[in-house]
Structure formats: C-alpha cells, structure tokens
C-alpha cells in the first residue's frame, strides 16, 4: 500500500505539471482527490491493515494528500496569473474611441402634467393633501353622500377587497378625511392614482390619475368656483382659452356643473376631436353638499365651499395631443422618449 501511495503521488505531480488550463487542473484534482478518486480508494482499503500498519499508512496518505493539494494550489495560481496576463495583452483598449452613450431617463408625461397642475394651484394658495389608495367604503362613498345601494356606486365599477374596504375610485375621500381633521378655512388639492373596473381601450384604463380640489370657508359662492377654475384653465392652456359651465349632477355637490374649454385643436371652429362642437369637457365641479359638510363635522349654516375634479390622464392627452390612453401605461420607450 505504501508503494501505491508513492505511485499516486508521482503520477499526480506529473499530470499537474502538464496542465495548461484551469479545466485540466480541476480534472486532475477530481481524479486523485475526489470522492471516487484514487487516493480515496486507497484510504477505503485501510480496514484490511493491522493495527500497527494502519497509523503508519494513514500518516503517509495524509502527507501525499497535502503534497498534491499544495502542488495543485501553486499550479492553479500560476495558471490564473498566466491567463490574466494573456487576457490583458489581448484586450487592448482604444482610449480614442467614443464611449457608449448611456440612456438617461425622462419625466413621464403624466408627471410633467401633474407638476404643472400642482404648481398652478400652489400659486393660488392651495395645499397638497394625500390619502390611502386602499380606502374604507365609508370615505369613498358614504361620507360623500353616496349611501348603500346608491346608483352612483354601480357607475363607479368599484374594486372591492371586502364589504368595507375598496380600491378608491376617486381622490375625493382625501377631502372627507381633511374636513374631519382640519377646521375651516380649507384650501387643498388631492392628486393621486385611482382604480375602476373599466375595460381597457383608447379612452379607458382600470388605473388612472385624478386631481380633486376643495375650498371651505365663510361666504364661498359659485362665483369663487368659477373664477378659480377659469384662472386655472388660462394658466394651463393659455390666455386665449374660453370656458363655459353646464348643469350636471354629482352626489357630492349641489348645485353641480361640468366645465368645458375651447378645443385646443381647432380653437373653437369644430373638429373631429371636439366632435364639431368647438368645446372639450375638462372637469366636474360644484358647491359642496350641506350633508357632506355635516357628516364631516362642519356646520353648513356657517360655512360653504366648492369642489372640483380633473381626470389627469385626460389633461395629459389634451396637453400633448395624445389620442390613446394606453400609450401612457405601456412603458414603450419609443413613445416616452418624446417627452
């Protein structure tokens, strides 16, 4: 057995010396030191030795293993240095060549439009308030004068998590939360993401953005609402834009209206975008319903207010002449790089 160990050592060192690559070195290691290697096979046969021979042979076997392992480590280090030097010689860098241009991200058109809208209202003294996207049914509906079984609930196509929790269908719940916690005067906007169970098409998406506003104080009238929104429209789209208000119905407000603006494509002459009317619908608005004030702990006999709500995605499409809302959510860099 001693002769076998000496022969294994001699053969292993010869084979290691011939290796020129890391793969060959690994093959030699497995051949002699692996679980099924030649040295391991010798050690398994030690059970047939006498008690006197066993420690002697075991000592020699360990010395052989250590010698082979050291020779392997030295050879691996030498081969790696050789491979590194060859790689450095072959990989010549031409420092005169131009570098690869890095793609730099750009602001999304939704963010650009939101920032512009927020800045306009901040200049008019509005604060920005935020609220949860996963909302209680109470704040999303009941606090806004939309009780159980109200027809407006079916119009919202709500995503229900359970009977009491929903994905908010509008940012109006933020207004209700602010009215509960803050005493008038209140002058705020609440931009954010909302959810409705709509089929995806050119003008609808189950996820979209809204910005709603609220003003509560003593002596607030519809004239204040009209003046605020007309000023916003001119700052957003230019001094030449005209606006008009049409009667409408919202459970949250009374009286309620929708505001239209001069078509930005045809400037009021009539075109395909405005369906020949010369006007484009911008937002819904109205005076805050007394019942909503009362639910939120504000005395409607002392205070009044107005509220309004924009579809931000619609504002983006009007602002940039985009005719398909899906472009805003598909992350197509060919589209987004234009902004």
Features:
single chain; 339 residues; alpha+beta; BirA Bifunctional Protein, domain 2; 3-stranded antiparallel sheet; 10 strands
Describe this structure in words.
The protein is an alpha+beta fold and 339 residues long. It has 2 domains: 2-89; 109-336, Bira Bifunctional Protein, Domain 2 (BirA Bifunctional Protein, domain 2), CATH 3.30.930. Helix content is 42%, strand content 20%. The chain has helices spanning 2-18, 22-33, 38-44, 53-90, 109-123, 137-140, 151-156, 172-181, 222-237, 290-295, 312-320, 333-336; strands spanning 127-128, 134-136, 159-160, 165-167, 186-195, 207-217, 243-250, 253-262, 279-288, 304-311. The chain has a 7-stranded mixed β-sheet with strand order 1-5-6-10-9-8-7, with helices on both faces. A 3-stranded antiparallel β-sheet has the order 2-4-3. Helix 2 runs antiparallel to helix 4 and helix 5 crosses helix 11 (312-320). The mean pLDDT is 86.
Topology diagram in text:
Blueprint lengths: L1 H17 L3 H12 L4 H7 L8 H38 L18 H15 L3 E2 L5 E3 H4 L10 H6 L2 E2 L4 E3 L4 H10 L4 E10 L11 E11 L4 H16 L5 E8 L2 E10 L16 E10 L1 H6 L8 E8 H9 L12 H4 L3
Parallel strand pairs: 1-5
Antiparallel strand pairs: 2-4, 3-4, 5-6, 6-10, 7-8, 8-9, 9-10
Helix pairs in contact: 1-2, 1-4, 2-4, 5-11
């Amino acid at each position: 057995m001693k002769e076998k160990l000496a022969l294994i050592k001699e053969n292993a060192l010869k084979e290691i010396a011939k290796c020129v690559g890391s793969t060959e070195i690994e093959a030699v290691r497995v051949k002699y030191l692996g679980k099924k290697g030649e040295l391991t096979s010798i050690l398994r046969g030690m059970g047939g030795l006498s008690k006197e021979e066993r420690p002697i042979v075991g000592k020699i076997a360990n010395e052989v293993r250590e010698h082979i392992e050291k020779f392997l480590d030295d050879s691996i280090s030498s081969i790696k240095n050789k491979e590194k030097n060859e790689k450095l010689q072959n990989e010549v860098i031409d420092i005169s060549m131009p570098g690869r241009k890095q793609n730099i991200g750009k602001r999304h058109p939704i963010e650009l439009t939101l920032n512009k809208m927020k800045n306009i209202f901040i200049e008019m003294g509005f604060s920005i308030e935020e609220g949860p996207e996963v909302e209680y049914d109470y704040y999303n509906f009941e606090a806004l004068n939309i009780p159980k079984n109200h027809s407006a609930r079916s119009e919202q196509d709500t995503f229900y998590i359970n009977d009491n929790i929903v994905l908010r269908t509008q940012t109006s719940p933020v207004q209700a939360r602010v009215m509960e916690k803050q005493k008038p005067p209140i002058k705020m906007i609440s931009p954010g993401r909302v959810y409705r169970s709509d089929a995806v098409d050119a003008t609808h998406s189950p996820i979209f953005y809204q910005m709603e506003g609220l003003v509560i104080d003593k002596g607030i009238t519809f004239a204040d609402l009209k003046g605020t929104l007309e000023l916003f429209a001119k700052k957003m789209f230019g001094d030449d834009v005209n606006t008009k208000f049409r009667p409408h119905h919202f459970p949250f407000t009374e009286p309620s209206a929708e505001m239209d603006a001069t078509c930005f494509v045809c400037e009021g002459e009539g075109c395909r975008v405005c369906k020949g009317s010369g006007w484009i619908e911008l937002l819904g608005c109205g005076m805050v319903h007394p019942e909503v004030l009362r639910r939120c702990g504000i005395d409607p006999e002392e205070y009044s207010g107005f509220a309004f709500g924009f579809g931000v995605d619609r504002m983006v499409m009007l602002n940039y002449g985009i005719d398909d809302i899906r472009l805003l959510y598909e992350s197509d860099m060919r589209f987004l790089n234009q902004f």
